[in-house]
């Protein structure tokens, strides 16, 4: 039950971040009577749910190439901490 509680807290925190980041944009476009309302796509929300971050952004900076040395270093750190 502890694992389920932790996962639920994570999902609630992510939902809160999503709402806090998007409501001001929607309200300002409604106040300005804009013809388009900047609502995020469902794919952006799904990516946010599975990305290792708690702050919602419409897009996240990424490198063009995978730095395999960096990946190996982080994998070794996680492996050594686990054992």
From TrEMBL:
- From the UniProt record, list the reaction(s) this protein catalyses: (9Z,12Z)-octadecadienoyl-CoA + cholesterol = cholesteryl (9Z,12Z)-octadecadienoate + CoA; (7Z)-octadecenoyl-CoA + cholesterol = cholesteryl (7Z)-octadecenoate + CoA; (9Z)-hexadecenoyl-CoA + cholesterol = cholesteryl (9Z)-hexadecenoate + CoA; cholesterol + hexadecanoyl-CoA = cholesteryl hexadecanoate + CoA
| Localization per record | Endoplasmic reticulum membrane
Which species? Scopus umbretta
Give the chief site where it resides.
endoplasmic reticulum
Might you report a single GO cellular component term?
Answer: endoplasmic reticulum membrane
Q: What is this protein called?
A: Sterol O-acyltransferase 1
Q: Name one GO biological process term.
A: cholesterol efflux
The UniProt similarity line reads:
Belongs to the membrane-bound acyltransferase family. Sterol o-acyltransferase subfamily.
* One family name in Pfam for this protein: MBOAT
Topological type in the membrane: Multi-pass membrane protein
User: What InterPro entries does this protein's entry cite?
Assistant: MBOAT_fam, Oat_ACAT_DAG_ARE
Q: Which GO terms describe its molecular function?
A: cholesterol binding; cholesterol O-acyltransferase activity; fatty-acyl-CoA binding
The source's superkingdom equals Eukaryota
Keyword terms, alphabetized: Acyltransferase, Disulfide bond, Endoplasmic reticulum, Membrane, Phosphoprotein, Transferase, Transmembrane, Transmembrane helix
PANTHER family from the xrefs?
Answer: STEROL O-ACYLTRANSFERASE (PTHR10408), STEROL O-ACYLTRANSFERASE 1 (PTHR10408:SF6)
